[in-house]
Amino acid sequence: MKTLGFAAGVAATMTLLSSTSAFAVTEISWWHAMTGANNEVVNQLSKEFNESQSDYKIVPVFKGTYPETLNAGIAAFRAKQPPAIMQVFDAGTGTMMGAEGAIKPVADILSMGGQAFDKSQYLPGIVAYYSKPDGTMLSFPYNSSSPILYYNKDIFQKAGLDVDNPPKTWGEVWDAAKKIKSSGAAPCGFTSTWLTWIHTENFAAWNNVSYGTNENGIGGTDVELKINAPAFVKHFQELADLAKDGTFKYGGRTSEAKQIFLAGECGIFTESSGGLGDIVKSGMNYGTGQLPYEADAAGAPQNTIPGGASLWVFAGLPDEQYKGVAAFFNFLSQTPIQARLHQVSGYLPVTLAAYEETKKSGFYDKNPAREIPIKQMMGKAPTENSKGVRLVNLPQVRDIENEELEKMLAGQQTAQQALDNTVARGNKAIQEAIGN
Amino acid sequence: MSPRVVFPNKILPYLLVAPQLAITLVFFYWPASQALRQSMLREDPFGLSSKFVWFDNFKKVLSDPNYLNSIQVTAIFSISVAAVAMGTALLLAVMAEKVVRSRGLYRTLMIWPYAVAPAIAGMLWLFLFNPSIGSLAYGLRWLGINWDPLLDGEQAMALVVAAASWKQISYNFLFFVAGLQAIPKTLIEAAAIDGAGENKRFWTIVFPLLAPTTFFLLVVNTVYAFFDTFGIIHAVTGGGPGKATETLVYKVYNDGFVNLILGDSAAQSVILMVIVIALTAVQFRYVEKKVHYG
Q1: Using one digit for the tens of pLDDT, what is the confidence trace for B138-182?
Q2: Which residues of B touch A249 (CB under 8 A)?
Q3: How high is the pLDDT of residue A231?
Q4: What is the pLDDT of residue B3?
Q5: Which one of A71, A99, A403 has the shortest CB-CB distance to B257?
Q6: Which residues in chain B touch residue A95, judged by CB atoms under 8 angstroms apart?
Q7: A253 and B254: CB-CB below 8 Å?
Q8: Nearest residue on chain A to B239, alpha-carbon basis
Q9: Are the beta carbons of B240 and A409 separated by less than 8 Å?
C-alpha cells in the first residue's frame, strides 16, 4: 500500500509539473511553403530551437505552394486567426508591405527580444530588399537566391567551345548558343527559367537600367514601368530572333525550363542559384558562371537582386509570442546555424559572419557555384536601379509580362510591341492596385 | 399528369426535405450571397480598407478586353469538350454493344479513366505531350508537326480539350451504354427486316431514342466543361500561352487568388453563376422540347 501511495503521489506531482510547464510554453506557428529537402531543414531548425530552450515552441505547418501559403495567411488574417510567422515569396513582398496594419516589422520584434537589432550584421543587398524606404527591416530573410549561369560541359566540348570559360555577356551567350545549335552538339543553345525575374527584374539591376520609377518601387508604391526602354527591347528581340530556329527554347513561366536543360537539350541555362541541387543530383557534367550582362551597358555588371522568400510576422499578437519570434530569429541568425543552412540548402547566408566563416572553411573552393550569387550581390553598392523591384501587385505584372512575351516568342508581335503592351497594361494594373 | 404524393401530415414533408435545404443553404446560398456582397466591394487583400462601390466591379470586368477573350475561350473550350467527349463516348458505346465476347471487360476498361482525378489526368497529358520529354510529342514531331503548346495557343487549346474530354468520355460512355440497352431489340430487328442498313437504323431509331440520355449528358458536360476542368487547365497550361486557355473559371481563380483582386474576382463569379443558370434554363426550355421521352 505504501509503495502504491508513493507511486500515486509521484504520478500526481509529475502530472502537475508537466501541466504547469505546458502552460508556460508559448506555441508559435510558422506557416511555410518548403517541400522535400527544404521542408526537412524547416523541421530540423524548429526542433533544434525547441530543444535549445523551454519557453517557446515553434510549430511549423506546410501550407502548399508560395501563392497558396500567402493566400492561406491572408484568409487566416481576415478570419482573425493568423499564424505568428508566415513565409512569403519575393513577389509577395510588395503585397505584405502594402498591408501596414496587418504586419509587425521584424526590426521592432528583434529589439523586443532584449537584444538591440544591428542591421550591419546582415548582408546589405538582402536586407535592403526587405526594408521600408526609411530603412526599417520589415521581414526576416530566410531563403534567398539570385540567378546565375549554368552550362553543360559535355555539350560545350562537342561544340568546340571553351569548357572552362563560360560566356560573360549576352552577346557571347548568343554566339555560343548559335555554335551549339549549328555544330549539332545539342538541339538548342540556350534556355532560361523565369523570364520575368531573370530577364527583366535582374536584367535591369545587373545592367543598371531602370525597371520602373520610384527606384523600381522601393521608394514608393506609385510606379511607372520602364521596361520598354531600348536595352530591354534589344535583349528580348535577340531572344525572339533566336527562338525562331530553336536556338533559344522557351520552357515556361516559372522553373519548367530546368527539365530541358537537365535532359541535355540545351547547352546554356540561366536559373536561380537555388536550382543547383537538382543539377548536382542529375549527375550532369556542369559548369557555372555569373549571370551574363550587356557589354555596352554603362557600369555593368552592377549587382543582382535576391529572389526566394522571407519570414513575415503578423500584427496584433500577444507580446509573449513576439518575444518567442524574436528568440527564434536570433537563433536563426547565429553564425553556425546560418553557415550550415547556407552550405546544406544552397540559400544565401543572411549574415556577413556566416559568409566569412564559410569562406574560411574552404567550402567555396570545392563549391564555387555557391559563392557566385553572393559575389554578384555584394560586388557593388546598390544603385536606385538595383535595390530590387517592389510592386504591390508584382505577381500580376509578371503574369502580364509572361503573356506578352509568349505572344512575342510565338511570332505574333515584336519585342517593341510586346514590351509596349506590357508597360501599358502593367501601369494600368498598378494604378488600380494602389487604389487610383 | 404526374402522380402526386399527398402526405397526411403537414410537417413531415418539410422535415424530409430539411436536410437537403440545409445543405443548399449552407453550401450554396450562403457562399453565393457572400460572393454577391464581395462583388460590390473594393477591398485590399487583407480587408483593412473596404469601400462599397455598387456595380463598379461589374462595369470594370465587362469592359475588360481580357474578360471578353475569356468568354470566347470558354465558349470554344466548352463546345469542343462537349462535342468530343459525347461523340467519342457514343461511338465507343455503340461499338462496345457489338462486341460479342468479353463485353464486360471492354466496358470496365472504358469506365476506368473516370476514376482519375482532374489534376492527375492533366499531369498525364502534360507528360505525354511535353515538347521535350513527352513520348507522344516525339510522335507528333516525327509526323512533321511543329508541336509546341507552350507557345502555340491553338495547340495548347487542343491539348486541354483532349485532356478534359478524355476524362469525361467514361462517364458519357456509361450513360450511353445504359441508354442503348434500354432500346427494345424488336424495333431494331423490325427495321433490319424492312431492309434498313446499319447507318439508317442508327440515325432513325437508335439516335432519336437516345435523345433523353444525350440531352442529360449535354447539360452535365456543359457544366463539367465550365467548372470541373479547372484542375486540368491549372496543371496543363496555367491559362497560357498568352491568355489562350484562360477560361472564365480560371480567370476567377487567377484574379482572386493569384492577383488578389477580390472584388473583380467575385464579380466574375457572380456573372459566371448567371451564365450557367441561364444556359441550363435555355437547355431545359428549348432543347428539351425536341427530346422524345419514350
Answers
A1: 888 888 888 888 888 899 999 999 999 988 999 999 999 999 988
A2: 132
A3: 95
A4: 61
A5: A71
A6: 45, 260
A7: no
A8: A403
A9: no
For residue B30, the distance in angstroms to the closest alpha carbon of chain A comes to 17
- Cβ distance A67 to B153 less than 8 Å, yes or no, reads no
* A2-145+307-366 CATH, one of 3.40.50.360, 3.40.190.10, 2.60.120.760, 3.40.50.150: 3.40.190.10
Rounded to the nearest angstrom, the minimum Cα separation between B261 and chain A is 8
Q: Chain B residue closest to A95 (CA)?
A: B45
Contact B241 A410 (CB under 8 A): yes
Query: CB–CB of A263 and B132 under 8 A?
Result: yes
Mean pLDDT of chain B: 87
The answer to whether the CB atoms of B130 and A252 lie below 8 A apart is no
Q: What's the rounded Cα separation, in Å, for the pair A310 and B130? A: 33
- What are the domain boundaries of chain B? 56-290
**Closest CA of chain A from B117, distance in Å:** 18
- Closest-CA residue of A relative to B60 is A432
Residues A223, A389: contact at Cβ < 8 Å?
no
CA-CA distance, B244 to B159, in Å (whole number)?
12
Q: Is the dihedral of CA B61, B63, B68, B70 positive or negative?
A: negative
Q: Which tens digits make up the pLDDT trace of A48-59? A: 999 999 999 999
Buried b (16+ CB within 10 A) or exposed e, A293-302: bbeebeebbb
Alpha-carbon distance B237 to nearest alpha carbon in chain A (angstroms): 9
A250 interaction partners in chain B (CB closer than 8 Å) = 150-151
Q: Read off the amino acid at residue A91.
A: A
Helix (H), strand (E) at residue B199: helix B198-201
B161 half-sphere exposure, CB direction, 13 A CA radius = 23
The 3-state DSSP class for residue A337 equals helix
**Three cell numbers at A183?**
555544330
- Cell 497550361 -> residue: B237
Establish whether domains A2-145+307-366 and A147-304+391-433 are of one fold: yes
CB < 8 Å to A78, chain B: 46-47
pTM for the full model? 0.84
Q: What percent of chain A has pLDDT over 70?
A: 93
Average pLDDT, rounded, for chain A = 88
Complex-level ipTM beyond the 0.90 threshold: no
The shortest CB-CB distance from A259 to any of B44, B133, B152 is to: B133
Fold category of A147-304+391-433 in CATH = D-Maltodextrin-Binding Protein; domain 2 (3.40.190)
CATH tag, B56-290: 1.10.3720.10
Whole-angstrom Cα distance, residue A246 to residue A311? 40
B123, B132, B135, B146: best to mutate for the A interface, most A CBs within 10 A: B132
> With 70 as the cut, is the pLDDT of residue A3 above it?
no
B154 to A68, B121, B147: CA distances (angstroms): 29, 20, 11
Residue with the larger pLDDT of the pair B201 and B48: B201
pLDDT at A202: 96
> Within 10 Å of residue A424's Cβ, how many Cβ atoms?
14
Q: Is the pLDDT of residue A36 over 90?
A: no
**Domain-wise residue ranges, chain A:** 2-145+307-366, 147-304+391-433
Q: Which residues of A touch B257 (CB under 8 A)?
A: 67, 71
Counts of helices then strands in chain A (DSSP H, E): 21, 10
CA-to-CA separations, B96 to A30, B102, B107, B116, B289, in angstroms, rounded: 55, 10, 7, 22, 30
- Which of B46, B242, B259 is opposite residue A396, by nearest beta carbon? B259
At A189, phi and psi to the nearest 5? -90, -45
